Amino acid sequence: MTKKIIKKEDTKPDPVEQELQKIKKYYSDSFASTNWMEKDMLADHNRILKDGDRKKEFKEKFDDSAMNLSMFYAIENGVWVSNLSYGKYQPMFSKMRKQIVEEYGCKSPSELMLADSIVANYWLIMRNQMNLARMVENEDGGYTFNQSKINIINILNKVVDSSSRRLYSTISLLKELKQPSLKVNVKTNNAFIGHNQQFNDNKNNDSK
Questions:
Q1: Considering the chain, what percentage of its residues have pLDDT values greater than 70?
Q2: Spatial separation of the C-alpha atoms in residues 120 and 51, rounded to whole Å
Q3: How much is the pLDDT for 193?
Q4: What is the CA radius of gyration of the chain?
Q5: What is the distance between the alpha carbons of residues 16 and 19, in angstroms, rounded to a whole number?
Q6: For residue 64, what are the CA distances in angstroms to 38, 58, 206?
Q7: Contact 119, 81 (CB under 8 A)
């Protein structure tokens, strides 16, 4: 049986397949679409700023562009957490988020997300805890109950409990992420290292 000799030109990649792979990479790589979107958004915003004095619709376009950029950089600037509730609370949310970020030195996206989650859950706890206290006790110190009030109290209690668990677990996770990696050097023939313990089995040691 004669072997077929494959010429070099026969191994050229299929142009159609190459194009399909390029398209696949472009749409499967989240950073690919982000790069041009970011440049376009920044360029549009800069153009609006430069043309602002000559356009009547400057404010509307500027507000839309500013909102788009704020949402685009939401992880970095904390816009989501600042809009947890009504506008009057935004300065408080922003300050709380800034304090958490500074306390734990949050820099990576995952750390900043956890900072947002801490603020959100703390707000749910305190807000619903306040409502719960007011549902239980009247302003004059008296107590009145009916089935509707009991149902609301049960719901508020569940929200406070679940938010508390999420808050504590989120803080623990953030602390764990910020801890430096533990380096362990073990010099032995056989070592079995557990979470809080170490077992050594040295066959060179004779048991007596």
A1: 75
A2: 39
A3: 55
A4: 30
A5: 5
A6: 15, 10, 78
A7: yes
3-state secondary structure the chain: CCCCCCCHHHHCCCHHHHHHHHHHHHHHCHHHHHHHHHHHHHHHHHHHHHHHHHCCCHHHHHHHHHHHHHHHCHHHHCHHHHCCCCHHHHHHHHHHHHHHHHHHCCCCHHHHHHHHHHHHHHHHHHHHHHHHHHHHCCCCCCCCCCHHHHHHHHHHHHHHHHHHHHHHHHHHHHHHHHCCCCCCCCCCCCEEECCCCEEECCCCCCCC
Domain residue spans of the chain:
22-72, 81-179
Q: What is the pLDDT of residue 207?
A: 46
Compute the average pLDDT of residues 133-138.
86
Confidence of residue 32 (pLDDT cuts 50, 70, 90): low
Tokens of 16: 């159609």
pTM, two decimal places: 0.67
State yes or no: pLDDT of 201 exceeds 80. no
CA gap 146, 124 in Å, rounded: 25
Angle at 12 between CA 10 and CA 16, to 5 degrees: 120
Per the CB < 8 A criterion, the answer to whether 188 and 198 are in contact is no
